[in-house]
Amino acid sequence: MQPIVMQQGPPPASSAAPIAPVLSVTNVEVRYQGSILVLKNVSLTVGEGEVVALLGSNGAGKTTTLKSISSLIQSEEGRVTEGQIHFLGAHIHNQDPVSTVRRGLVQVMEGRRVLEHMSVEQNLIVASAPIKANRQRLRQALDEIYGVFPILAEFRDRQSGYLSGGQQQMLVIGRALMAKPRLLLLDEPSLGLSPLLVHTIFKSIARINRELGTSILLVEQNAKVALGVAHRGYVLENGRIVMEGTRHELLNNEDLKEFYLGISATGQRKSFKDIKQYRRRRRWLG
Amino acid sequence: MLWETLLRVLVSGIANGAIYASVAVGFSIIYRSGKVFNIAQGEMLMLATFMAMTFFGMGMNHWVALALTATAMGLLGLGVERFVLRPLVGQSEMALFMATLGLLLVLNGLGVIMFGTEPRLFPDVLGTERWLVGTVSIKQSAVLGTALVAGSVAGLAWFFRSTRTGLFMTAVAESHQIARSLGVNVQRSIGLSWAIAGVVATISAAAFMSGRSVSPEIASIAFVALPVVLLSGLESIGGVMLGGIIVGVGQSMAAAWLDPYTEGGASLLFPFALMMLILLFRPQGLFGWKRVERI
Questions:
Q1: Quick check: B183 and A127 CB within 8 A?
Q2: Which of A232, B185, A165, A62 is nearest to A173 (CA)?
Q3: Are B240 and B232 spatial neighbours (Cβ–Cβ below 8 Å)?
């Protein structure tokens, strides 16, 4: 494999509004157990070949948004009670999550959820469930993943519970690619990883988007690193979308700079002394 | 003299261990898939035994009859999953356990009603020859039965480790949520587990009942299989063979050397004393899954 050269920002392909949305979420409202309202009137789109970041602080509803798209929310007694979610033209909200995966939409859950008693390769084979695979095609799919993450090939027979955090993160992303998804939902891939590993993981994410053409909806607390690979982004607060824009617009937005990137208008890092002065603008924060 | 006793102990211990293992593997397969402890596994063995005998009684070829029984037991397993357990999805593990306890009572009652309590002779499907090793006679049916169980367990272990469908089922055993997020049909895997357990019960019957007189009470053999499952570990498939042999041989040792002083109590007690020790010192068993802890 060629060494990866980190580009300065993503390719300009779809910097404007998306041409053909792969995913469109329209005015969605989500409740847990029929009463606890967690998402209010959320709308977003992901275009073909686009990387979209969904930013926000703890408890803003980022994970819930992903899980309501993938329908995995059902195992937590959550439901989409208003609005619509379309993926490649089909309704996918409140469906069987397995059917959504078969359509080509795979979520990588938060927290590196490997099948810890199974080997790396067994983890990958399980993820071939949605595709009709004979021995040869399975081999091909495995080699493709090993091409993206060579470290996984090296440890293919190791029990995945004993991999390092970064390797586990690569495994769960690689595993999601086994189904050859059109859209990948990534939940906090940087969680609990060292800055160097975060850099490596995000390089891989950019490369997956570029070389495999997979559209990606990315949830992150780390706004800076997320906007490093995303074409566009949304900011979620208290279950509402409060801001949206292209990568460039968001990176240059004063509020976002202060609240998520930790840089003040003068280019200096904010200190806690200054908190009071922008307190009135806390509507973005939960 | 001692060698002779030891050989006899080993032979009967391994043969008994194999039947425990075959019932235990049924427990494991079902437990893995849905975290359901199917206490009625012994009743499935009993049902398979009498179903096969009914087919034999109709004058069928033995192997045809066993194949029919396996099919019917597989369907029964599917039916139990579909109509007893699936309606309880999302309920506590205790509720599922109570459902299988109810299943035990129903099947037990049905067995007595349909087949009576009189012991009947199961035909010699695995031959009647005996071989002499020194002065110890070894039954052909015991050797073939043990081999049949060992082969089936090895086959199942391979299935769950190396085939795609088997790996899907192992993933379901690890986490329903992860399996579902990867597009694995969890419900179908659980149903398939019950069907396999039904077929395994038929194999146990064929391997163990040959030439014995049987009554619906044989279901109680499942209670000795419990220590075997716990010893090998609830999620382990291949491990049940070793667990079964340890329990079987230990039991026949107790029968040979301790029973004369304990009026037959030691061999009855041994498996359960062992079970207590396992639960105290290694609750995940020899090959069971222990969560990987990270600090």
A1: yes
A2: A165
A3: yes
Domains: count for chain B: 1
Assign A155 to helix, strand or coil: coil
Q: Which phi and psi angles does B123 have, rounded to 5°?
A: -60, 160
Q: Which domain does B156 fall in, by range?
A: 24-219
Chain B residues whose CB is inside 8 A of the A125 CB are 164, 167
Exposure string for A106-137, b = 16+ CB within 10 A, e = fewer: bbbbbebbbbbbbbbbbbbbbbbbbeebeeee
Nearest-by-CA chain A residue for B169? A126
Q: Please enumerate residues of B whose Cβ is less than 8 A from a Cβ of A.
A: 161, 164, 167-168, 170-171, 174-186, 235, 289, 291-292
The stretch A20-40 carries a mean pLDDT of 90
Per-residue pLDDT of B108-145, as tens digits, reads 999 889 888 889 889 888 888 888 877 888 888 889 99
Phi-psi region of B129 (alpha: psi -120 to 50; beta: other; left: phi over 0): beta
Domain count, chain A: 1
Task: Indicate whether B238 belongs to any domain.
Answer: no
The complex's ipTM works out to 0.85
